[in-house]
Write a structure and sequence with these properties.
heterodimer, A: 163 residues, mainly alpha, B: 360 residues, 3-stranded antiparallel β-sheet
């Protein structure tokens, strides 16, 4: 084996290797390994977050359905209540109207009664005055002769006696 | 069959040119020496050979940086004028240098050399005979090139994340899976989810550096073709770095296993401790040898298959040789990635053992 200046190659290999190693470490390996690691992490993160999103979507869907069911139940409840209120209102109104009607009728009846009494009283007054007028006229006519006057007096006297 | 025909046609001009070049260079028909050719191709060099033209070899001169007895000396490798036989003497700074089979020596070491006679060169490790060499060799050049390429590519990838937050596209789409592969298949299974982050930059750097240089070594033309990862000095350095990281990040549990292996009686300690300490060193040594041997073997096989043509001195062997080279090259592309993976995997494994928490 013919060695040509082995010390030269050993020296230069050591020197160049050391310089080259530090240069590569700083300008190549570190950035490359970091970038690769960063990308691997971001891929893992992306996959995990996609999985999370999927799970959240499922949760959201379940929530939505639950909400929908609750809303539906509430709507039914509201409708039922409204129906009840309506019925109650109608019933109340009916009752009130009935009571009012009765009251009005009673009032009308009382008014009629009082009017009637007034009318009767008025009639009685008028009848009495008319009767007096008629009696006056009658008396005037009847007592125009003497006999009739004496008959009357007699009669009146009899009445007094009775008293 | 069609491919073989195409291949043989494509290869033929190269064959003739190579033989011409050899003949002119040697000035006579020399016995073809496959071993020398292969050794020359897998070894490091001070010139970056570009091509041969008209028997002349053209190459890119590389800077030579020497730490001599009298201090630093620098000059371009072209001053040796392609000489590998210690015959061209370069004088710099009052000192004389020669190059002999790729290595640069003081000229004095070859003073007794006589032209044409066999000369026993001084040992490469004998620093009294040669200056300490810090030259930018072909392998260092290739290393710098690969480092720049990797940095430009991955810096572009890193910047792309600032613009594009979504799925990776283009260059990022191609390179990011490789980074993730190193993280998910190498770092996390061996070091553990909790502690892998600290060692990721090292593992990624090693993986891409080795892979890119393995591939560069397979491309047979300038500015590639340097056999960096098949050089034991390079694999030694890489394995040493892994070893240092292992021992410096070793925790109580790791050292406990070495110096007081749990479950082993105390009287066995004199045997166990040396064995465990040996184990500390055999791991990075295995790492070093494995990468070096795999890549060098691949290059030797491909070069041997090409050499077959010259050994048989027949153009008709070229389709067979070419088919095998094609097959081996395809296999080597696989091995290039595989060995980068194995080196990184074993580094991660050793680091993982060092930082492992006790579970007894």
């Amino acid at each position: 084996m013919n060695f040509v200046a082995p010390e030269s190659l050993i020296f230069w290999t050591t020197a160049i290797f050391i310089v080259f190693f530090f240069l590569l470490k700083k300008f190549a390996w570190k950035p490359i390994l970091e970038a690769v690691k960063k990308r691997e992490e971001s891929i893992t993160d992306a996959l995990a977050s996609a999985e999370n999103a999927k799970r959240e979507m499922a949760n959201l869907k379940a929530d939505n359905e639950k909400l929908l069911a609750a809303a539906r139940a509430e709507r039914d409840e509201l409708l039922k209540e409204a129906r009840e209120i309506k019925e109650k209102m109608i019933a109340d109104a009916k009752n009130i109207a009935e009571a009012q009607g009765e009251k009005i009728i009673a009032q009308a009846k009382a008014t009629i009664e009082s009017e009637k009494a007034a009318a009767v009283a008025d009639l009685r007054n008028q009848v009495s005055s008319i009767s007096i007028e008629i009696a006056e006229k009658l008396l005037k006519e009847q007592l125009a002769n003497k006999e009739a006057q004496s008959n009357l007096v007699e009669k009146m006297l009899e009445d007094i006696k009775l008293n | 069959m069609k491919y073989l025909l195409v291949l043989s046609v494509v290869l033929m001009p190269f064959i003739s040119k190579a033989t011409n070049g050899d003949q002119t260079l040697a000035d006579e028909i020399e016995e073809f020496d496959a071993t020398e050719l292969i050794q020359h191709h897998i070894a490091d060099s001070h010139d970056f050979h570009l091509f041969d033209y008209n028997g002349d070899s053209y190459s890119l001169p590389l800077p030579i940086i020497l730490w001599t007895k009298n201090g630093l000396v620098t000059f371009m490798s072209s001053e040796f004028k392609h000489d590998e036989d210690a015959s061209v003497v370069v004088e710099k700074n009052g000192q004389e240098f020669v190059r002999y089979h790729g290595n640069i020596y003081y000229a004095d070491a070859f003073a007794s050399k006589v032209e044409g006679e066999h000369f026993e060169a001084p040992s490469v490790m004998d620093f009294s005979q040669r200056p300490v060499n810090f030259s930018i060799t072909k392998n260092v050049f290739s290393l710098i090139l690969s480092v720049i390429l990797i940095f430009v590519l991955f810096n572009a990838v890193a910047k792309s994340y600032k613009k594009n937050d979504g799925a990776p596209k283009g260059l990022t789409g191609f390179l990011e899976p490789l980074v993730i592969f190193v993280r998910d298949e190498i770092a996390i299974p061996n070091i553990g989810e909790k502690k892998h982050g600290k060692f990721m930059p090292y593992l990624l750097t090693v993986f891409f550096l080795i892979w890119v240089n393995n591939l560069f070594g397979l491309i047979p033309f300038f500015p590639f073709s340097a056999n960096l990862t098949g050089n034991i000095a390079f694999t030694f350095t890489m394995a040493t770095i892994t070893f240092l990281i292992t021992i410096f990040s070793g925790n109580k549990n790791y050292w406990g296993h070495i110096f007081n292996t749990p479950g082993v009686p105390l009287w066995l300690a004199p045997i166990m401790i040396p064995v465990e300490i040996m184990g500390m060193f055999t791991k990075p040594i295995a790492l070093m040898i494995r990468l070096f041997a795999n890549i060098t073997a691949g290059h030797i096989i491909i070069l041997s298959l090409v050499s077959l043509i010259f050994i048989f001195k027949s153009v008709f062997i070229s389709p067979v040789s070419g088919a095998f080279v094609l097959f081996m090259s395809a296999l080597e592309i696989l091995v290039a990635a595989l060995q980068a993976y194995v080196f990184t995997l074993l580094s991660a494994l050793f680091i993982g053992q060092a930082v492992e928490e006790g579970h007894h």
